[in-house]
Amino acid sequence: MELTAADRALLAALADGLPLVARPYAEIGRRCGLDEQQVLARLRRMIAAGVIRRFGLVVHHRALGYRANAMVVFDVPEARLPEAARRLAALPYVTLCYRRPRRPPLWPYNLFCMIHDKERARVLALVAEAAEAAGIADLPRAVLFSRRCFKQRGARYGSPVTERAA
User: Fold this and answer.
1) Quick one: which of 33, 36, 29, 34 has its CA closest to 14?
2) What share of the chain has pLDDT > 90, as a percent?
3) Bridge partners of 142?
4) Most buried residue, 50, 85, 147, 151, by most Cβ within 10 Å?
5) Which domain holds residue 46?
6) How far is Cα 112 from Cα 122, in angstroms, rounded to an integer?
7) Do residues 79 and 110 share a domain?
8) Is residue 72 pLDDT above 50, yes or no?
């Protein structure tokens, strides 16, 4: 897909995230000379073309007081993985859930999820609850608590593309 100058301006306006206002797409449009409907139409087009692969939010958990952040990893047989992942992802306290390849012999885990809370003990209780709810309490797992907070930000779009006039 060829991006227009207006598409590039829109991507640049989105680089630092959506503004926390009642009509964020209207505000983004105002910043780059588009109306709200034009912003939405362009975003839909870029998503459909694969220019934008994900559109979501980045939550700064520590700033909200959630200091016990854990990546929970499970070793799930392939036949059980889709159902276990579906159940894990449906839990309100699981913020990410995804599959990754195992790296034997050192890393046998293939299902990952994040659980955040203000207290470490509460996270451990939620891990046990999640494993039970997903039907994988009998499987090997590890709970990896964050020691540091890395900078979190949304996607940056800046690869060279052919540009034409909007």
Assistant:
1) 29
2) 64
3) 73
4) 85
5) 3-57
6) 19
7) yes
8) yes
Which residue is associated with the tokens 């109306």?
Answer: 35
Tokens at residue 121, please?
Answer: 């003990």
> What is the DSSP code string of 22-54?
S-HHHHHHHHHT--HHHHHHHHHHHHHHTSS--
CATH number for the domain including 17? 1.10.10.10
Give dist(CA 25, CA 76) in Å, integer: 41
Answer yes or no: is 99 within a domain. Answer: yes
Chain segment 118-153, per-residue pLDDT in tens: 899 999 999 999 999 999 999 999 999 976 655 555
On average, the pLDDT of the chain sits at: 86
Q: What is the DSSP letter of 93?
A: T
Nearest CA among 62, 124, 63, 136 for reference residue 93 = 124
pLDDT at 57: 60
The confidence score (pLDDT) of residue 149 equals: 56
Paired sense of beta strands 111-117 and 94-99, if any: antiparallel
Q: How many helices (H) and strands (E) does the chain have?
A: 5, 6
